Amino acid sequence: MVEEWCYGSDGRLIPLCVVPLWDAELAAAEVRRNAERGVHAVAFSEIPAWLGLPSIHTDHWDPFLRACEETDTVICMHIGSGTRTVNTGPDAPTIVGANLIACNSISSMIDWIFS
Q1: Which of 5, 31, 69, 87 is the most buried (most CB within 10 A)?
Q2: What are the C-alpha distances in Å from 20 to residues 68, 76, 88, 89, 98?
Q3: Domain ranges of the chain
């Protein structure tokens, strides 16, 4: 993505990296490695606890967050990565769940505000 799509776009295209969420130290190393290549945006799960990972209310993510701060890397929510969707009932039409998917983004935002 960096070399083939974004290089030479004069900043119109912004590269975004994906980090290994299973290890905060590896994620930090990937943020630093990509920052050296000019990548200053990273995708992060909207609700890591739903993936069986520690929530952002713990110090588990401190190495990753420190690396983002040190490299001026923006953390971008990967919408839909929480893997769960809210629904009002098993017989509700598909459109109900499709519209309630925004609840995951709202939950994530509240997590970040109070973390």
Answers
A1: 31
A2: 14, 15, 33, 34, 28
A3: 2-82
Q: In which band, very low, low, confident or very high, does the pLDDT at 82 lie, cut at 50, 70 and 90?
A: low
Whether residue 71 contacts residue 35, with contact meaning beta carbons closer than 8 Å, is answered with yes
Mutual angle of helices 62-70 and 24-36, in 10-degree steps? 10
What letter represents residue 57's amino acid? H
What DSSP line would sit under 25-66, residue for residue? HHHHHHHHHHHHTT--EEEEES-GGGGTSPPTTSSTTHHHHH
1-59 tens-digit pLDDT: 777 777 777 777 788 899 999 999 999 999 999 999 989 999 999 899 989 999 999 99
How many whole angstroms separate alpha carbon 111 and alpha carbon 94?
A: 27
Residue 70: CB atoms within 10 Å: 12
Task: Report the alpha-carbon distance of residue 26 to residue 58 in Å, rounded.
Answer: 17
Query: Could you give the 3-state DSSP secondary structure of residue 77?
Result: strand
Strands 41-45 vs 17-18: parallel, antiparallel or unpaired: parallel
Query: Rounded to whole angstroms, how far apart are CA atoms 70 and 66?
Result: 6
